[in-house]
């Protein structure tokens, strides 16, 4: 997969476009009122087979193109949907996050893609999905996670460009971030690569 298509797969294309249209700002503290927007009615749970069509439709709508939805299908078909959570509101899937195993010397997950239905964005649903995914990853014994995206967004979840420095990956650079899920897991840099589905797009 070339860097342009991974840009698309990770939403970096959209993130870059959004970043260009927004003034450069430091990450803002989370608005906890937003996190409480759906206190009783929103459910975050693992995907089930009956969710597959809805996840595909949601992902296509969120990204405005089919590539990321195809990536989700390919990762699932390969058995690489290590963590796949949906956000459900009024029986409707309004958000989805996927973490897939990366080839690395420590147990490592790549975060991509994450999607929230356009009308439900900016209400904390993406943040809840990512935080729940990271908690599950720790419970499951994963030691580290990488993401390619806009640092303005992902630093609030503990990812940093600094933590990914020195790690070998074809997309290493200013949008490539890492965070430890276990102490000292990223102390010594290593080569890390995304699941094979990322190369099939
Ligand atoms: C990115 C996405 C998942 C975020 O979900 P969300 O539920 O809207 O996010 P949250 O409500 O948790 O957080 C909203 C914050 O993220 C910021 N944000 C959202 N999209 C952003 C982007 N493309 N670039 C930078 N920041 C972004 C918002 O400005 C907002 O910031 P604030 O908290 O300082 O106001 C959602 O906007 C989406 O589905 N986008 C299209 C697909 C995509 O680009 N996915 C990410 C790449 S894998």
Protein architecture, described:
With 201 residues, the protein is of the alpha+beta class. It has one domain: Aminopeptidase. A 6-stranded mixed sheet has the order 1-2-3-4-5-6, with helices on both faces. Helix 4 packs antiparallel against helix 5. The radius of gyration is 16 Å and the shape is globular. About 11% of the residues have low confidence. The chain binds coenzyme A. InterPro entries: Acyl_CoA_acyltransferase (IPR016181), GNAT_dom (IPR000182), MshD_Acetyltransferase (IPR050276). This is Putative acetyltransferase. It comes from Shimia haliotis.
Observed structural traits:
201 residues; alpha+beta; Aminopeptidase; six-stranded mixed β-sheet; 8 helices; 6 strands; 20% strand; binds coenzyme A; GNAT_dom; Putative acetyltransferase; MshD_Acetyltransferase
Could you give the topology of this structure?
Elements: H1 3-9, H2 12-21, H3 32-35, E1 43-46, H4 52-63, H5 67-77, E2 83-89, E3 92-102, E4 108-116, H6 125-139, E5 144-148, H7 151-154, H8 161-164, E6 176-180
Parallel strand pairs: 4-5
Antiparallel strand pairs: 1-2, 2-3, 3-4, 5-6
Helix pairs in contact: 4-5
This protein binds coenzyme A.
Coenzyme A (COA) is lined by residues 10-11, 14-15, 18-19, 28, 62-63, 112-116, 121-127, 149-150, 152-153.
Pfam family, one: Acetyltransf_9
GO molecular function: acyltransferase activity, transferring groups other than amino-acyl groups
Protein name: Putative acetyltransferase
């Amino acid at each position: 997969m070339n860097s342009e298509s991974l840009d698309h797969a990770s939403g970096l294309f959209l993130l870059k476009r959004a970043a260009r249209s927004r003034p450069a700002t430091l990450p803002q503290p989370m608005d906890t009122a937003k996190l409480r927007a759906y206190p009783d009615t929103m459910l975050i749970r693992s995907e089930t087979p009956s969710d597959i069509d809805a996840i595909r439709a949601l992902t296509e709508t969120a990204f405005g193109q089919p590539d990321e939805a195809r990536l989700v299908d390919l990762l699932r078909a390969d058995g690489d949907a290590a963590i796949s959570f949906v956000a459900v509101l009024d029986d409707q899937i309004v958000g989805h996050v996927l973490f897939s195993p990366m080839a690395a010397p420590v147990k490592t997950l790549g975060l991509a893609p994450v999607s929230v239905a356009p009308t439900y964005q900016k209400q904390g649903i993406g943040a809840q999905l990512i935080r729940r995914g990271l908690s599950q990853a720790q419970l499951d014994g994963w030691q580290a996670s990488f993401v390619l995206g806009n640092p303005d967004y992902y630093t609030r979840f503990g990812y940093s460009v600094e933590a990914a420095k020195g790690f070998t990956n074809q997309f290493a650079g200013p949008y490539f971030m890492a965070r430890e899920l276990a102490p000292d897991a990223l102390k010594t840099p290593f080569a890390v690569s995304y699941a094979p589905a990322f190369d099939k797009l």
